[in-house]
Helicase ATP-binding domain-containing protein (Buteo japonicus), 319 residues
Amino acid sequence: MPSEKESRSRRREWDLSPSQWDWDCPATRRRLEELYFREQDYIGAGSEDVRNFWAFFERLRRFQSRRTESEPTPSCHSQAESPTIAHRLDLPRQYDPRYRINLSVLSADMEGAIRGRRGDSSIPQERLSEFRAALLHYLDFTQKQSFAKLAKLQRERAALPISQYRDQLLRAVAQNQVVVIAGDTGCGKSTQVPQFLLAAGYSHVACTQPRRIACISLAKRVGFESLHQYGNQVGYQIRFESTRSPATKIVFLTEGLLLRQVQREPTLPGYHVLIADEVHERHLHSDFLLGVLRRLLPARPDLKLVLMSATINIRLFSG
């Protein structure tokens, strides 16, 4: 238990006048992070978003100080330069509070915690309001960036050749237990088909790859395109390494690893769709896996199997 002397010292540390307040003080930042960046908050403790916020906060302070300096002598020239300054500081040119994220919804118990914790009542309310406003600006700014990135990714995905066959592919999967997809290299099969299936309601999709490096790179790409946290809804699973979690809905794994899962669970109850990619590469694991899956399908009528390749013999695999 801290002594009364330590408590008074802590109160004096936070009981600063506006002119004495130092945003760059490590103790100040550490205390604000304890209040606003907890594990359950929108910006989690110790995450990269915390570092990004403080970098944004520094740019915001510089922008506000420059704007304050230019306010006493406004001119047409200074007004014309303000958008340029905002652009140079990576700040939004206009901020509409109607579209900002309400932080009180994200941390409903935060205000009570601030008032209830010993010593926190001495933090100047003016500084808390200033910090909260900066945090709302940051959340709004990152949200705008995410929307812009998502729009660009959607345009890139729509330009892929596989996109024009999306509805036809989903109908084929819904009407048949086994579907064969043949498409040229680079048409988007490996990255788009799992996302098509996930969006259509197939919540547990596994895509096998003959090489481990392909599992890792595809998981990163699909996670980037879907803007989900890497290793959460999209992950990979290879020997001695895995980013799979209970929340994972699309997993890229090697053929040998799926065979080991069949040994433990012969019916593979954890999957709704299995995608066998690059099936034209004939080797021991791929041929044995296809044989196992062929015997598994009658026991799992709800399981969908998608075979994909750039140079596939459709007659051979559809027979």
Summary: Residues 125-158 form the longest helix (34 residues).
